[in-house]
Amino acid sequence: MTSKTLVRRLALVVSCAPLVMLAGCPQEQTSAPGKAPAQATAPAITTGSNASAGQAGQPAASQTQSVDTAAKAAKVQQLINQAEAAYKSGVDNYRAGHLDAARLDFDSAVDLMLTSGMDLKTDPQLADEFDHLLNAVNSLEMAALKQGNGFSPVLEAAPLDAANEVTFPANAALTAKVADELKTTQSDFPLVVNDYVAGFISYFSNSPAGHAHLLRSLERAGKYKEMISKNLRDQGVPQDLIYLAVAESGFQPQAMNARSGAGGMWQFMPTGAYGLARNGWFDERFDPQKSSIAYAKYMKTLYNQFGDWYLAMAAYDWGPGNVQRAVMKTGYADFWELYRRGNLPAETKNYVPGIIAAIIMAKNPEQYGLDKIVPDAPVVSDTVTVDYAIDLRLVADVTDSSLPEIVALNPSLLRMTTPRDMSFDLHIPVGTRDVFADRIKEIPDDKRSSWRFHVVKAGESLDGIATGLHAHANDIVAANGLPAGGGVDAGDELVVPVTSAAASVRPQRYAVRRGDTLVTVADRFGVSVEELRRWNHLSSNAVRPGASLTVAEPVKLAPGTHVRSRSARGKSGSHSATSSVHAGSAHANAKHTNPKSGGSTKTAKKNSSSTHQSSSSKTKPKATR
Predict the structure, then answer these.
(1) pLDDT for 142-183, tens place per residue?
(2) Long-range contacts formed by 339-344: CB under 8 A, 24+ apart
(3) pTM of the full structure
(4) Cβ(211)–Cβ(369) below 8 Å
(5) In angstroms, rounded to a whole number, what is the distance separating the alpha carbons of residues 200 and 163?
(6) How does pLDDT run across 86-145, given as a tens digit for each residue?
(7) Is 211:362 a contact under the CB 8 Å cutoff?
(8) What are the Cα distances from residue 68, in Å, to 102, 113, 231, 344, 366?
(9) Most-buried pick from 41, 142, 189, 454 (CB within 10 A)?
C-alpha cells in the first residue's frame, strides 16, 4: 500500500483507535485480516425453531434485544466479509504485479470499514479486524519496498543518510582551515569545528554523491526558507537551525520513513502531540507551514530543557529521555563529551556534526563549490477556506491551472478531494482567489466532488468537450441553459456534469464478467482501451472473468517512501515518554518530557560556550544530579 494510502487511512483512524501508521514500524506478518480473538467474536446467530425455543420464556423486551443483537452481529460479519474479499482481491493483484489495482483493492477494503457508519473503536470484533487488515497491508508494502517496487516512488535520500557508514580520518589541515573561516562567519548558532565536523565537510565536499545530495537540498530550501525563517524567529530558535531539514528530509515536504512511519520535512511521528492534525483527508505533518511551526516550537522546548543547542539537536534525534540519562550517567551536559565517552548511538554522533557541517558550508558557499546554486523559487499561493468536498481536478479547472500544480500546493491532502463537513485551507495559484470564488458558485455544493468546469477553446465542439470529460452533451446543455442544437464559442465557461466513473473522488474498480472484453468495459465507463491497458499494466486486450480492473485514472497523492539506510532511531522505546521525536528520524510523543507540561525530568543548563568554542576544552560543566 502507498504511503499516501497508509497515512490517509491511519489518519482517519486516529478518531477510532490509536494505530501505528502503515508506512512505519514494519511488521513482517502477512496473515490475512479478520482473525479475531475468541473474546472478540460476535454472538452466534441462532435461527429457526431453536431460536424460538430459546426465547420462549423471555420477556418481549429481551426477545427484541436478542433480535437486535443478532441483526447487529450479522451486519458486522457482512462488513468483515466484504472487507476481506476486497483485501483478497488486492493480494491477488499484488502478487500479479498489478500494484495500482492492488492499491485500489486495499483502499476499498479499508474504506468499506471507515464509511460503514459502525463504531470501529468500541466493537471489539471490528477493531480487531481493522487492526489485522492494516497490519497485513503494511507487511505487503514493506515487502514491495524491499523489492524496489513499492506503491510510491522513492524520494531522494537525505544527505546524512548517504554518509551513514562513512568514517572520517582526522584532517588537521582541514580542521584548521575551517576554524579560520569561522572567525568571519556570521551565525546565530554556536558553530564549532573539530575532527568530526571537518570529516562531514570533507564528505560533502569531495564525495560526488554527498555533494550532489547537499546541493539539491540547498536548492530545494529556496521554496521554504523565508517561511521557515519566520517561524524560527517567532519562537526564538536560531535561524541556522533551518539546516536540520538537510538531515531530515532534504527539504522534501512529503518525505516518509518506511521503517518508523515518520513523515514530512521535519520527520514527525504520527503518534506525536505537536498540534498537527491527522485524519482520513489530510496529514499536517506534510504541510510545510504547519509542520515548520511545530518544529520551531519543539526545538525551543528541547533547548529550554537542556540549555544547549547541541544537546537539543541530539534530543531531537535520539530522544530527550535518552539524552537526559546520558547526561545524568556521566555528569556532563556537553554533547562532545558524551560523544567522546561513547554515550551516544552512532547515528546521533553523526547527526549533530553533520548538520553543523551543512551550516558552515551553506554560510561559506564559495569555499565549498556551492556558490553556483540557484535556489528554487519560493512557494507562494492564495488560500481559500472550504467546508465542502471539492475534487482537485475541479480546483484546477476553475483556476486555469493543472492538477499537478494543485497537488503540489496542497501536500498535506491524502485524497483527490478536500474533506467533507470540516474546514480546510485550500492553496491555489496566486491571483486566482477571485476567479475561484466566482466560478465555483455556479456548481452546487454537493456536485463539487464530481462535476467539472471548462473554458471553451477555439475549435472545440460541445460533443468533443463532452467526450473529453466523459460527460454527455445533453447534460452540459441543460446545466448551462444552452439552446437546444446550439453551439459553443471560444471563451464560453461551461459547468460540466460528470456521471461516469472518471468523476469519482477516487479511482473505481470493475470486476470483469464472463463475456466482457476491454472494448466493452471501455465503452461502459467512457474511457479508451489504451487507457485501460495502461492503468492496469496489460500487454494485450485479453481479460479473464473475475479480474479487477481500474476503470478511471489512478492519481497518486501519497508521499513517496523515504527509506533510510540507518537503523531506526529511538527503537528502545519509540512510544515511551523518553523516546525521541525520532525513531529513525521519527518523532515520537515527547509531551511528557516537556517541562512546560509538567515533566519531572530536569537538566541543568550548561554555561553558554563561545560561538567558536574548541572541542578540546578541558573544563566541562557538570549536570546537577
Answers:
(1) 455 444 444 444 566 655 555 555 566 778 999 999 999 999
(2) 339/196, 344/314, 344/318
(3) 0.65
(4) yes
(5) 8
(6) 888 888 877 777 766 777 778 778 777 777 778 777 788 888 887 777 767 655 654 554
(7) no
(8) 36, 20, 55, 59, 76
(9) 142
